[in-house]
XRE family transcriptional regulator (Streptomyces bungoensis), 278 residues
Amino acid sequence: MTIVATGTAATAPAAVPADRGVGPMLRAWRERRRVSQLELALRADSSARHISFIETGRSRPSEEMVLRLAEHLDVPVRERNALLLAAGYAPHYPETPLDDPALDALREGMERLIQGYEPCPALVVDAGYTVVAANRGVAMLLEGVPEKLMTPAPNAMRLTLHPEGLAPRVRNLREWRGHLLAQMERQLALYRSDRLRALYEEVAAYPVPEEEPDGEPAAPVPYFALPLRIEHEGRILSFVSSISTFNTPMDVTVAELAIETFLPADPATVKYLRTMEA
């Protein structure tokens, strides 16, 4: 079963208020990336003097220069549009709703991709962790989760950490919770997103048991990444997650999509998934 949510991707406001002007915004991104004016100038085939003039507002950068500096500073696509607007130019990157016919091929491709990982869980989320597609492996793990957490649109962070969601089944909840919160904190350090901040404050406030849930001891496997250890039908399954994004996206919606796959982390999980597949 595939779950697909339609509509636009999550809106994440620019990292710096646009009314400060493009110069201060570019300086903020440069400092965030820990790049000197000279280094940025060399990357962008400019001069440190010109970069300084842009940042202080003494020089108005061309549209091409804004895009070039944003590229070398690895500025997210949505924030590149914000930089252009602050400099007095039109946005360069469109924001196409995910249910737009123009993205039919993309949606179909993502569905085929996550279905190809079955029986391993795989899902697609937007910038606010809203689940826009999921495969049968995810549906298997979500069995028994209350309907109120699934509607109107399921949120991956809420589903995982809510005390009525998957949290009671996660056998290393403290570790996994810390990993997820740190992931959100890294995002919040880059983006001024009220929606993401509200989600972070909500899930961070969920109660955490003083001790991990009772369960089978972890198998003596040398994990190469932090596993998600979760109970399903009396068995403890272990997964390691991998997150993929699109290469050089030219659309805001596409840029903010992420495909997360959960691969078995021990032989017991591999064996169990094969029986489920059979």
About this structure: Residues 38 and 48 are 5 Å apart (CA to CA). Confidence is low (pLDDT under 50) at residues 1-19. The chain has two domains: 18-86, 101-277. The domain at 18-86 is CATH 1.10.260.40 (434 Repressor (Amino-terminal Domain)).
